[in-house]
Amino acid sequence: MKAVKCSFCKGDVEPGTGLMFVKRDGTILYFCSSKCRRNMLELKRKPAEVKWARKGGGLSEGRRG
Ligand SMILES: [Zn+2]
């Protein structure tokens, strides 16, 4: 399995640890964490609007989400 980038924060998704989501149109999204998945799919946030996502790492929690 090749390395992929998180579709939300663009951070590296380590093989075996990430989450994969297939949209109805066939687009495959990868997420480094459930936090990124939630922000993209449930909260409909854009990475540019989320400070922690711009840094390229969804693993360090921001206090304000
Ligand atoms: Zn991410």
Distance between the termini: 31 Å
Arithmetic mean pLDDT: 81
Rg result: 11 Å
User: Proportion of β residues?
Assistant: 15-25%
Hetero groups in this structure are: zinc ion
- In order across it, which strands form the biggest sheet? 1-2
How many DSSP helices? 2
Please provide the count of β strands.
Answer: 4
What helical percentage do the residues reach? 10-25%
| Helical/strand content category | alpha+beta
Unreliably modeled segments: none
Largest sheet: 2 strands, antiparallel
User: Could you state the CATH homologous superfamily?
Assistant: Ribosomal protein L24
CATH architecture descriptor: Roll
CATH class, please? Mainly Beta
State the order of secondary-structure elements, H for helix, E for strand. EEEEHH
Which word captures the global form?
Answer: globular
Keywords:
Ribosomal Protein L24e, Chain: T, two-stranded antiparallel ribbon, single chain, binds zinc ion, alpha+beta, 2 helices, 65 residues
Short description:
With 65 residues, the protein is α+β, with helices and mostly antiparallel strands.
